[in-house]
Amino acid sequence: MSQFRDSDGLRIINNWMAEKGHAPFLFQLQTWQRYSNGYSGMVVAPTGFGKTFSVFLAVVIDYLNHPEKYPKGLKLLWISPLRSLAKDLAKAMTDAADDIGLDWSVQVRNGDTPTATRRKQERLMPDVLLTTPETMHLLFSQKKNSRWFKSVRCVVIDEWHELIGNKRGVLTELAISQLIHYSPKVQIWGITATIGNLEEAKQALLPYPNLKVTQVTAKQKKKLDIISVLPDEIEVLPWAGHLGTKMVDKILPIIASNTTTLIFTNTRGQAELWYQVLLNAKPDLAGLLAIHHGSIDKKLRNWIEDNIASGYLKAVVCTSSLDLGVDFKPVDCVIQIGSVKGIARFMQRAGRSGHSPFERSKIYFVPTHSLELVEVSALKEAIKEKQIESRDPMVLIFDVLVQFMVTLAVGEGFEAEALYKRVKQTHAFQYLTKDDLQWCLHFITKGGKTLHSYEEFHKVILDEDGTYKVKSRRISMLHRMNIGAIVSEVNLKVKYFSGGYIGMIEEFFVSKLKPGESFILAGRILELVQIKDMTVLVRRSKAKKAVSPSWLGGRLPLTSHLSHYLRLKLSDALQPGRLEKELRFLNPLVSRQNEHSHIPKADEFLVELIETRDGHHLFMYPLEGRLVHEVFSALMAYRISKLTQITFTIAMNDYGFELLSDQPIPISEKNIETLLSKDNLMDDVIASINASEMASRKFRDIAVIAGLVVQSQPGTRKNNKSLQSSSGLIFRVLEDYEPENLLLRQAYTEVFNQQLEEARLQKAFDRISKSKIIVKYAKSFTPLSFPLKVDSLRGTMSNENLDKRIQRIKEQAFKIN
Amino acid sequence: MKIVTEHITILNEELVLTNQRAIYWNKESALILSDLHIGKTAHFRRHGIPMPDDILQKDLRRLKELINHFNTRRLIIVGDLFHAKANSDMDTFKTWLKQFDDLSLVLVKGNHDRQSQRLMDELNIHVESTLIIDPFIFIHDPSDKTTKNFTFSGHIHPGVLLKGKGKQKLKLPCYQVSENQIILPAFSLFTGLNTLRNKTDVVSYAFTDTAIFRLQ
Q: Are B128 and B77 in contact (CB under 8 A)?
């Protein structure tokens, strides 16, 4: 230990920091020391406390002390989920190396890297390479790629908490396993923010028994101010989006009194809307207000990011596109518009302001309807009690495995037995059986068990030397284009007719527009001229108003942690504490709810029956988030339909759901407990949902990742049109011909784990079975039911057969599109 | 397989729409269909996307039943008989075709039909870019149409989106019949549906495995 303390490397770094007027934090020192002792590990630290330098400088110090341990070539691989991070990190690292007098080259490689730079890197790798999980896999798909990685001594996974819960995490786990294979002495370090399951996160990242594993946790805590912005008056019948723009007058003074403000919205459509609204309310902001989201041109986004950093911009309307990424020093205020759905996400967004170690973060919450104020109250409570959501690592993700196997086959080829041993060491595939692997091999060589005529299917072949390889250039090219686990909607490029690229838009939205119609993108009003070669050609529109594009997806459900606190706060709402200003403000609404129906206490479950002109409504409020409500509502519809033949229309939001029927719903105090019973729960769930329909939706991503669907690249002429097919079509084909297909099974598993959230549903019914069930009959919509009525994400549930249903729809004066 | 029929009369010709994606024309003893896309599964396989060939077998079984059911002497295929360049699926089709002794095939060339004349001769398929059998004209892509006569077309794989109360939604394949044209549904089950409409005066005949519905 004393050896390290007295080492030249540490002295050089300490001097360098001292010159800049800094001293290392304790967790940085610990990381440096343990790295030097040969440990791998995980650093847990909030953003803004120098977590980057904790690991980067550890490698620098070790190099200064033992240069002989580091051969020529790539030494440090820095894998981070975000491209935008890489540029600034590389700059910080280069500056540090220069200051210290270290002749290291630090370079970035990702989808934005120009081809010339990439070729140069392939000839001579830099000492430090910053990259993404996808680019790692692309590198593995190159011929003779192992030569680049043999010299690597340290691999860092930055923002591991962002990767762990999704398929990109699985890509990362596989990349680590491959890197260990190439360079057995490599040390692996993860960097993560606090999440609910740190131990598991560490296990998933570092499951290798040969590694010495440690954890370093920063003691520093971020101070956080949460301020809710209250509307002037309260509507007792709230609905989503309604409040919205009325709150502009409240937002403008906040922007004025801070240096730089980030305004977070939940969807890209919302961001476009708010950008317009703010500009209309205060035209002076033109040029000082920007809009930033994932569909905006990369160059424009870079410009915006640079100008946030320089302090030139006063405010930026953004989406989760700015959740992570570069630390913007001037940002001293964050405004969140609408529900955030999760505690961790809320804290992360808040943390984007007041970035220096000892500054406070400040976040304003602007509700889009008054009920969301309960959520602020719940968030405050959860943060006070330090409750943060977990992110569960995914297991047995066959689509990613199949992709990885083809990636290797395109690259250097692989041997089945050796690959099995390696992959089985990862957390994601620890339960992989030999049969599973055999199936995957069969799938990539012969196309699955039922593909009889596989003569033409030469995707991967077993070469004479015993390795699996891809020999066809055509297939290699198609595969490289398809590497990755982020499946986006089909996006089209948007360009001015006269030239100039604006951004991306979903095909689904554009397909509904006719030439001459206007829409908003990147804060501009554009007129559609024509669609050609996956490109939307537009010109500036003279229209004053236009539709904001809607983007599919992006509907995040409420996390179970937050919903727990929501239930508590709602039951408190009748007698709010002296300091709970949100709840005090909500009192008129809550009182009306209590007068016309009921406010459920923490140990109660509310059921409302309302009859209107539209028909007979049943409302229930489990407060378990949209996904659980989707299943819950289908289950209720199923159980009721066993009593009588009936068809429902279903609507849901994060608070509850509605069943609507044209017939009376046979529910009363007498049978309600049976209907809500937890007996035969999962059997009834399976009988009630269209599992096949849900799995078909899940299969979309799986089909793309496993290479069953060829994605067309936006803006390219060659769109592989003769290979277009929908994943839905392939799903049906596989259900008919190969029901035991592992990818199909994975789709169903994903439905149960993610869509049905089986565990959470079980818990909800447990809780309800212990609760007092309250049935109320109301004459009109109540404050709780009204937003549901308006929010209409509707599905149907029916036990009538198809032909009869069509007949009925016909009778109801259907519309043909 | 259940064959459900709906009889319509156009220009005094009796036409039998079936729920199995083909029309039978009485006077000519002809079965009219479009967009078989033979070779699509094999084309996918060649590009590393595994698709079972049973899909084709199933389409061909269905076609055979229809041929026998109606005592068909002639097949009029309104384009896209083949999906891609020659592959093993064409051989399957060739073998299958041999079982019918006196069945004549006419193909109205579609955008996918880029096969050599030799293959067509080998299969004994008569190819036309536009086929005229009084009182009808057969053209693959309806937008290429420049005639006032009643046309039969395929190409767009028409479907219909049914919307009921409370946002109930159903998508079904259909025949689109308007004043001077019929657009046929794609015969192959391995095809998508297009539910967009350009015209307003269209009657759609949508169908399921067990029924046909007339929608206006």
A: no
Q: What percent of chain B has pLDDT over 90?
A: 44
- Chain-centre distance of CA A404, in angstroms? 22
A723 confidence band (pLDDT: 50, 70, 90): low
Beta bridge partners of B206: B174, B213
List, for residues A303-347, the tens digit of each pLDDT value: 888 888 888 999 999 888 787 766 778 888 999 988 888 888 888
- Min Cα separation A452/chain B (Å): 7
From the list A455, A729, A812, the residue facing B88 with the nearest CB is A455
Both tokens assigned to A587: 């009192």
Question: What is Dmax (Cα atoms) for chain B?
Answer: 55
Q: How many domains does chain B have?
A: 1
**First vs last Cα of chain A: how many Å apart?**
75
Q: How far is Cα A709 from Cα A719, in angstroms, rounded to an integer?
A: 12
In a domain, A584, yes or no: no
The pLDDT tens digits for A669-706 are 889 999 999 899 888 888 877 677 778 878 888 988 88
Put simply, the answer to whether A662 touches B54 (Cβ < 8 Å) is no
List residues of B whose CB lies inside 8 A of any A CB.
Answer: 42-55, 83-84, 87-88, 112, 160-170, 190-192, 195-197, 204, 206, 208, 210-211, 213, 215-216
| Residue A793, token pair as written in the block | 């994400």
Measured distance CA(A599)–CA(A582) in Å, rounded: 16
> Quick one: chain B helix, strand, coil %, rounded to 5?
20, 35, 45
Domain containing residue A434: 398-486+694-752
Burial of A811 (0-12, 13-18, 19+ CB in 10 A): exposed
| B contact test, residue of A457, A460, A738, A807 with most B CBs within 10 A | A457
> By mean pLDDT, which of A16-20, A368-372, A562-566, A731-735 is the weakest?
A368-372
Which residue in the set A451, A725, A803 is minimally distant from B50, CB to CB? A451
Q: How many angstroms separate the CA atoms of A219 and A670, rounded?
A: 55
Structure tokens at B53: 């060939």
A88-to-A48, A82, A155, A302 alpha-carbon distances in Å: 14, 11, 19, 11
d(CA A679, CA A734): 33
- Cα–Cα distances in Å, from A151 out to A154, A447, A586, A750? 9, 37, 62, 38
Structural domain boundaries, residue B143:
5-215
Domain of residue A43, CATH code: 3.40.50.300
Of A456, A730, A796, the CB nearest to B166: A796
Residue A683 lies in a domain: yes
Which whole number is the average pLDDT over A422-427?
96
DSSP states of A194-249: --TTHHHHHHHH---TTS-EEEEE-----EEEEEE---SS--SS--TTTSGGGGHH
Closest CA to A401 of A817, A705, A761: A705
Lay out the sheet containing A772-778: strands in order across: A772-778, A604-612, A615-620, A657-661, A647-652, A794-798
Q: Are residues A83 and A106 in the same domain?
A: yes
- Chain B residue numbers with beta carbons less than 8 Å from the beta carbon of A741 are none
Average pLDDT over residues B106-132: 84
Backbone angles phi, psi at A679, to 5 degrees: -70, 145
pLDDT of residue A546: 64
Q: Which residues are CB-contacts of A555 (< 8 A; sequence separation ≥ 6)?
A: A626, A793
pLDDT band at B113; cut points 50, 70, 90: confident
pLDDT tens for residues A165-177? 899 999 999 999 9
Same domain, A49 and A27: yes
- Which DSSP letter does residue A386 get? T
Alpha carbon distances (Å) from A201 to A40, A157, A342: 14, 12, 19
